[in-house]
Amino acid sequence: MNDDRLPVGPGLLATEADRRQLLQQIVEFTRTVFAAKACSIMRHDEATRELVFEAVSGEGADTLVGQRLPDNTGIAGWSLASEEPIAIADVVKDPRFARDVAESTGFVPTKLTVYPLLSGERSVGVLNVLDQGASEQVGLADMNVLARIAAHAGAVLALVQDARAASTDDGRTAVSARIERALSSADAPRREAALGMLAALEQMLGAR
User: Fold this and answer.
1) Domain containing residue 193
2) Does residue 7 form part of some domain?
3) pTM of the model
4) Are residues 154 and 100 in the same domain?
5) Contact of 156 with 36, CB cutoff 8 Å
6) What is the pLDDT of residue 16?
7) Which residues lie closer than 8 Å to 74 by C-beta, 6 or more apart?
């Protein structure tokens, strides 16, 4: 398949609002194409090992955005980990289906298709299509369409992750600079106490 992903970049999607709007357009487009009851994009937060609802169209659109699930949850978690798409005609019969999680969202689908969103060697999230009505089963042609859509969504999600990581790194740099200034002006006992606290904090974070 040709690489026809969106030419996303800082110039085209410079703000968080731009990226959110494009993700929302992608799920709305996908839902329309597959005549589905719902469609969602979930971002993989590697730091917390969670899947985060970034955009939702249809059932759950008013409440799901921002909600987090462990990244090994249900069929979405399986697709994320395996980096394989999957289409299930009757989710109740699949042992990977997390019914309790579906019930907590207020909508339990019958049919579910999940496509992993990749950027290079990274699994950046998943695209979910719930109760698609365009056909009884998701066939090869449908999967080819989803693959094209997933390439666009993966590119945008990668940009979202990179932008947020850069923001976090900038914040940590600023905090580190403040700590260095404070330590340079503190007396010896206070410096030793502060360094001991920092060492303990680093050990705790390293154990996560």
Assistant:
1) 170-206
2) no
3) 0.73
4) yes
5) no
6) 75
7) 96, 97, 98, 101, 102
Measured in degrees and rounded to the nearest 5, phi and psi for residue 66 equal 95, -20
The pLDDT, as a whole number, for residue 206 is 52
Closest residue by Cα to residue 125 from 88, 91, 158: 158
Q: What is the pLDDT of residue 6?
A: 46
Residues 39 and 115 in one domain: yes
CA distance 13 to 67: 23
What token pair was written down for 164? 């947020």
As a whole number, mean pLDDT of residues 176-197 equals 59
Residue 193 and residue 139 share a domain: no
| DSSP state string for the chain | ---------TTTS-SHHHHHHHHHHHHHHHHHHTT-SEEEEEEEETTTTEEEEEEEEETTTTT-TT-EEETT-HHHHHHHHHT--EEES-GGG-TT--HHHHHHHT---S-EEEEEEEETTEEEEEEEEES--SSSS--HHHHHHHHHHHHHHHHHHHHHHHHHHHHHHHHHHHHHHHHHHHHHHS-HHHHHHHHHHHHHHHHHHHT-
Q: Does 1 have pLDDT greater than 50?
A: no
pLDDT of the residue at 13: 54
